[in-house]
Design brief:
Helix content: 10-25%
Strand content: 25-35%
Radius of gyration: 44 Å
Shape: rod-shaped
Strand order of the largest sheet: 7-10-9-8-11
Largest sheet: 5 strands, antiparallel
Number of strands: 11
Structural class: alpha+beta
Distance between the termini: 132 Å
């Protein structure tokens, strides 16, 4: 008579040697927490955020410069100022009160600005050097000067002094006055030396001067025997 195997006995299987072996246990599964719940991650994020904010505030506190307008090229008295004539320059003023002497980029500039004196390329635009067009009250004074009495660097926008020296032997060749006959005048036009030489061999300069200075100039020249003009450039 054959016997049926008992179901419970199927868990044990005889090996080739006849020794029963137990089935392999299932692998252990270890529970893991989500990465975003790891407190170390949030501590690192907080450290980075504090570093970024602190660095930005430190840089902002260190940058105490301000943008002001400067001229892009040499300009003389009487020249009109347009947008193309100005460039923004970042400047740090040791004395904050000096900021009021210049035009900042943030403020609205009048539409009819005109220079009352020469301003060099790259120079900050001072308020004292501009006015409304037509209000300067300046005249254009032409001068004929010996080429050797004019520095080669003199050109439009240069600021010059003009001295009147008499060549009369009685005066000993001394200056008619102790100071310049024309002081701090802006050169409006100064043709190149070769182009500006006429038949007299003189070089022409056109200066911007006040009406009172022009009247005094003509009186001085008329009262000086054989005047010789000497132009001295400032700066």
């Amino acid at each position: 008579m054959s016997r049926r195997p008992v179901p419970g006995m199927m868990a044990a299987v005889a090996s080739s040697t006849g020794t029963p072996t137990a089935p392999a246990p299932p692998p252990a599964v270890r529970s893991t927490a989500s990465a975003w719940r790891d407190p170390r991650l949030w501590v690192g994020v907080a450290i980075v955020a504090v570093s970024v904010v602190g660095g930005a505030r430190l840089l902002a506190a260190a940058d105490d410069t301000v943008q002001v307008w400067a001229v892009s090229d040499d300009m003389g008295a009487g020249d009109r100022l347009g947008e193309g004539d100005l460039v923004a320059e970042r400047v740090r003023f040791a004395d904050e009160q000096r900021l009021g002497d210049y035009f900042t980029v943030d403020e609205q500039l009048p539409a009819d600005l005109e220079l009352s004196r020469g301003v060099g390329a790259g120079e900050l635009l001072p308020r004292a050097a501009v006015g409304s067009a037509g209000d300067s009250g300046r005249l254009e004074l032409p001068l004929a000067v010996d080429p050797e009495q004019v520095p080669p660097s003199v050109g439009p926008g240069a600021v010059v002094d003009v001295y009147v020296v008499t060549s009369s032997p009685g005066a000993g060749g001394r200056a008619a006055e102790t100071g310049p006959a024309i002081a701090a005048a802006t050169v409006l036009d100064a043709p190149e030396q070769d182009a500006g030489l006429a038949t007299s061999g003189k070089r022409q300069l056109v200066l911007a001067v006040e009406e009172a200075d022009a009247a005094r100039w003509f009186e001085l020249v008329a009262a000086t025997e054989s005047p010789v003009l000497t132009v001295v450039r400032r700066g």
